[in-house]
Amino acid sequence: MSHGAASVRRWSYVVLVLMTLTLALIAVASCAMGVQVAAARRVNIAGITTAFVTGTLTSLAESLMSRAPSGVAPRAVIVSALVAGALCSSLLLHLAPVWAGALPPVFMLLALVTVATRLRDLTWQRRRRLR
């Protein structure tokens, strides 16, 4: 086997591995977006679509332009949070790229602890009212 054929085989292997990793990352991102959409539907506020920034912006603009702007505040908060998240992520990637991959799981854990704490408090309050 010639040197050129071995090189082509190596590169084809690298391409195969990179394509497999890319597909795996797409699958994980798709699952995350599905969970995000399911959570947004569970909240059940019309016009709030967290997985699609364009949809949220469109809903906000529609609410602002209508005669009776209902639901502007939640949509404005979501758009502001998206902008703030993008700015913080950009700064993090620029200033501390090593931490950029570690910080999102930390925030997710903090969110889970916050939700669990609030649910525990709500359950405790309901039990107290029933007594």
From TrEMBL:
KW Transmembrane helix (keyword) present: yes
Domain of life: Bacteria
Matches recorded under InterPro entries: DUF1275 (IPR010699)
One Pfam family per UniProt: DUF1275
Keywords, comma-separated and alphabetical: Membrane, Transmembrane, Transmembrane helix
Membrane-spanning intervals of the chain: 12-39, 45-64, 76-96, 102-119
Name of this chain's protein: Uncharacterized membrane protein YoaK (UPF0700 family)
Lineage, top ranks: Bacteria, Bacillati, Actinomycetota, Actinomycetes, Streptosporangiales
